[in-house]
Amino acid sequence: MATTDPAAEDLPPREHADGIRFDGVVKRFGDNVVLRELDFAVAPGERVTLIGPSGSGKTTILRLLMTLEKVNDGVIWVNGHPLSHMRRGERLVPADEKHLHKVRGDIGMVFQQFNLFPNMSVLRNVTEAPVHVLKLSRDEANERARGLLDLVGLGDKADAHPAQLSGGQQQRVAIARALAMQPKILLLDEVTSALDPELVAGVLDVLRDIATETDITMLCVTHEMGFARDVSNRVLMFDQGQIVEEGSPEKIFSEPENQRTQDFLHAVL
Ligand code: ADP
């Protein structure tokens, strides 16, 4: 299915263009309409968490942002650039690979499965992409990586291999690895789901530190309500491809108004 071709007058004003914006996004898999004319925005520096039942479309939103999937209709904007199109003068034309590469460069992602390179040291895991993609010198990349390993509390593990670390420590390396590319936006997909319960707190602490010490924009999908409450400034409750309620964590968790939010929280808390 072709995407819509937005006219030049649809371009948002530059000063409001940073962060993430979904405009009327429709995503289908066959007959299954997963996102129905979805509109939402995440402002620069904002930390937004998506909650809601399994199958409601949360991960699809992250996969669209990573250009692992394509919209059927509507436009996704990342830092003022439409994902599916690029500017040519005042016109928008379909994006080429170079454009997608550039837009994706602003986005870091951490998954449920940490996917570290098992045969490389922790330091090497964090420096590979900065050296090969950003063309940093090995020394610059090492310095950046050591700073980030300190930030995630693993300054003393630089020479260890992933198999020598706990799951929680591996996930903290994966967070450092994503941050080493200095993305403006960090996408987090169920980053604590694969961890034993006693390891979750360490990862949440790190994300809380990153949230307070950097102005990175975060969009998170989680089943961990503690995470949503502690790390985000805004929570979006999702059901059947639409936002049914949104607000501060205090509002959503203490005084949810929508029946579906109430039922969902009742089931998970
Ligand atoms: P959530 O993250 O909220 O659990 P998902 O975004 O993973 O939801 O999935 C939303 C819906 O899209 C589900 O019905 C799922 O089966 C469907 N879906 C997701 N990815 C694919 C795919 N690659 N092919 C077909 N259906 C998919």
Automatic annotation (TrEMBL):
Domain ABC transporter: 20-265
Lineage: superkingdom: Bacteria
Localization annotation: Cell membrane
Keywords: Amino-acid transport, ATP-binding, Cell membrane, Membrane, Nucleotide-binding, Transport
Transmembrane segments: none
Family, per entry: Belongs to the ABC transporter superfamily.
Source organism of this protein record: Actinoallomurus acaciae
NCBIfam families, sorted: ectoine_ehuA
InterPro entries, A to Z: AAA+_ATPase (IPR003593), ABC_ATPase_HisP-typ (IPR030679), ABC_transporter-like_ATP-bd (IPR003439), ABC_transporter-like_CS (IPR017871), Ectoine_EhuA (IPR014343), MetN_ABC_transporter-like (IPR050086), P-loop_NTPase (IPR027417)
Alphabetical list of SUPFAM superfamilies matching this protein: P-loop containing nucleoside triphosphate hydrolases
Pfam families hit by this protein: ABC_tran
Signal peptide location: none
Name used for this protein in its record: Ectoine/hydroxyectoine ABC transporter ATP-binding protein EhuA
